[in-house]
Amino acid sequence: MHFEFDIEAGDFSKVGFASSQLKKIMKQLVGAHKIVKRIVVALYEAEVNVVAHAYSGKVIIDIDTEKVVIKVEDEGPGIPDVQLAMQEGYSTASEKVREMGFGAGMGLSNIKNNSDKFQIETQVGIGTSLKIVSYLKAQ
Amino acid sequence: MEQKFFHHALKIQKEQCIGCSHCMNICPTEAIRVKDGKAELFENRCIDCGECFRVCPVGAIIIEQDDFNKIFQYKYRVALLPAVLIGQFPEDIRTSQIYSVLKDLGFTDVYEAEHGVDILQESMISYTEKSENKPLISAFCPAVVRLIQVRFPALVDHIISLHPPLDIAALYYKQKLISQGINESEIGIFYVTPCASKIAAVKSPVGEEKSSITGVINMDFIFNKVYKSIRRGEYSDSININKERLTPEGTMWSLTNGEADKMNGRCLAIDGVHNVMDFLERIENEEIKDVDFLELRACDESCAGGVLTTQNRFLTVERLKKRAQHYEDARIEKTKKDIFNYQTYLNESLSLGKIKPRSMMKLDESMTEAMKKMRRVKEIMKFLPDVDCGACGAPNCQALAEDIVQERAAINHCIFVQKVFEKKGIIDWEQSHEIMKNIWGDEKFDRK
Fold first, then answer.
1. Do B324 and B217 sit in the same domain of this protein?
2. Nearest CB to A29: which of B285, B287, B370?
3. Cα radius of gyration rounded to whole Å, chain B
4. SS3 (DSSP) at A119
5. B357 inside domain
6. B1 pLDDT exceeds 50?
7. Is the pLDDT score of B252 beyond 90?
8. What is the distance between the alpha carbons of residues B109 and A127, in angstroms, rounded to a whole number?
9. Which residues in chain A are contacts of B282 at CB distance < 8 A?
10. I need a surface site. Which of A94, A130, B86, B255 has the fewest CB within 10 A?
11. Number of folded domains in chain B?
12. What's the rounded mean pLDDT across residues B167-194?
């Protein structure tokens, strides 16, 4: 099954819309499966990244009976040093964003920890795209 | 036939029901539909929060209690009171007057449920220190426990599996009478409940086989009886009341922040079922982190706003606050209370069994089927107007679409779809009239 959601950059009051929608979908498809929480947490973190850093973004979700594939694509500044950005605690968030409780530098590493496969492609000045795969059955 | 998970105290009386759909629109778990002009309940979705009971304009929703005369089947008849019952009465009425009317009514013993807090509080604190499932959620409110089972199954492990104060007080009182040589079969413990969910919790407890409480009596019934007698001066003065007083913690426990104020770490209190649902959504997304303890209550102002209370909830809170201040010194005498003689026994009985998820959200047991159904829901939603008018007898368009794929409704139940079908000649006006009559009953189409 295929779903798409837009992410409005810069508006923190709306962050979490796509992950809430995905959560509803997963609850209807698989109920109390342990995987639901991990997928939702991963997508939520990805949404926060887009809202905080990018100019616009999109979530594309494909679900089949074996796996959930989530792509989060944004148009934005890109990440100059991906390895550095993947480190826990590394953050470029401004003071203002941190005051709102975001930007603790756990984002990308948390997404990776909550997914079975994690791919990141980024181009400075163009944007970033993430691919997160979660398997419904243990591989 | 779907398997029934819960006993429900809330019952819709079909004869009284006028099919107004107020209950359908307020229900937080979308458990109500209108069919043949009457409200219908999906029992496995209902969490006994009582919101429907509050809004019903004709009193068609009742909260089923035990027959009061059932107390006389027992030689020892214990009335277990919530602190909010005392908070219902005006300040010029003394606790001793209330107790004495309760004895006149037939109870042999009167005891306040929140004495159980004295035993529970420490165990709860050490439980929260040991457990890793942060944030931990109190098991105090049975409607919240059921809400989590049904709607937030991933969070069941966060519920603190310790008995609420009510159960501890019941266990204590029963054991106390037994140790006086009384046969257990002669003891009846009756809880005076401020809400429907506590009844459901007694009749089909979560996490244990059988409740230690014998029966439940609705608080509005007791309040009316007691208040009338006191106003008329009809009560005996020979009072021999339990001299033990509730600690300030006990008095405040069932109110908002009653628990959160007493736990360690970062604690939050949230009341009102819709607020609770909104918060649980965020907890599930891990949007809110580093919270240690959550006190969640289905009613606004917690038990002071219980559906079976009769008085204004803010006044009840005010009175209980005053009472707590007045009994400040009860904290010092706390450990002298008799309940502490049973501390070991009570601590051993404190644990609740496993609280299981009861997810009612799944479209189908098989994921392949669920995906098929979800695709159909998506297709059907394209035809529905997104107005959420409820004229189809379901609370919103999404709910109708889901009902259709579950074969509980048809697309022509939608009044907008009917108009389109009429224009296209698929149905005529008589057929659409008939459809609406099947949903809302004949009477609504036969007004003079």
1. yes
2. B370
3. 24
4. strand
5. no
6. no
7. yes
8. 73
9. 16
10. A94
11. 3
12. 95
pTM for the structure as a whole: 0.89
Same structural domain for residues B55 and B192?
A: no
The CATH class of the A2-78+108-135 domain is: alpha beta
Q: How far is CA A84 from CA A81, A89, A109, B30, in A?
A: 5, 10, 11, 47
Decide: B288 and B282 in contact? Cβ < 8 Å: yes
What value does the mean pLDDT take over residues B181-189?
95
The per-residue pLDDT for B2 is 45
Residue B53 lies in a domain: yes
Nearest to A12 by CA among A106, A109, A85, A93: A93
Q: Strand pairing partners for B297? A: B271
Domain that holds residue B403: 367-445
Start-to-end CA distance of chain A, whole Å, equals 21
Pair B173, B54 in one domain: no
The band of A95, judged by pLDDT with boundaries at 50, 70 and 90, is: low
Task: Please report whether residue B400 resides in a domain.
Answer: yes
Query: What is the rounded distance in angstroms from the CA atom of residue B417 to the CA atom of residue B379?
Result: 14
Is the residue at B104 inside a domain?
yes
Q: Are residues B59 and B73 located together in one domain of the fold?
A: no
Q: Are residues B119 and B73 in the same domain?
A: yes
Please report, rounded to a whole number, the percentage of residues in chain B having pLDDT higher than 70: 97
User: Is there a single domain that holds both residue B95 and residue B55?
Assistant: no
* Closest CB to B375 among A1, A19, A136: A1
- The reported pLDDT for the residue numbered A100 is 62
Q: Which helix (H) or strand (E) holds A132?
A: strand A127-135
- Residue B396 corresponds to which amino acid? N
pLDDT at B358 over 90: no
C-alpha closest to that of B174 among B74, B246, B95: B74
Residues B50 and B114 placed together within one structural domain of the fold: no
In this prediction, the answer to ipTM > 0.85 reads no
Average pLDDT over every residue of B111-133? 92
Where do the domains of chain A lie? 2-78+108-135
Q: Under an 8 A CB cutoff, do A28 and B286 touch?
A: no
Does a cis peptide bond (omega within 30 degrees of 0) precede residue B135? yes
* Region B265-284 average pLDDT: 94
B-interface mutation test, from A30, A36, A51, most B Cβ less than 10 A away: A30
Query: φ and ψ at B99, to 5 degrees?
Result: -60, -40
Would the pLDDT of B261 be above 60? yes
Judged by CB atoms closer than 8 Å, whether chains meet at A28 and B361 is answered as yes
Q: Does B381 touch chain A (CB under 8 A)?
A: no
At B187, phi and psi to the nearest 5? -105, 125
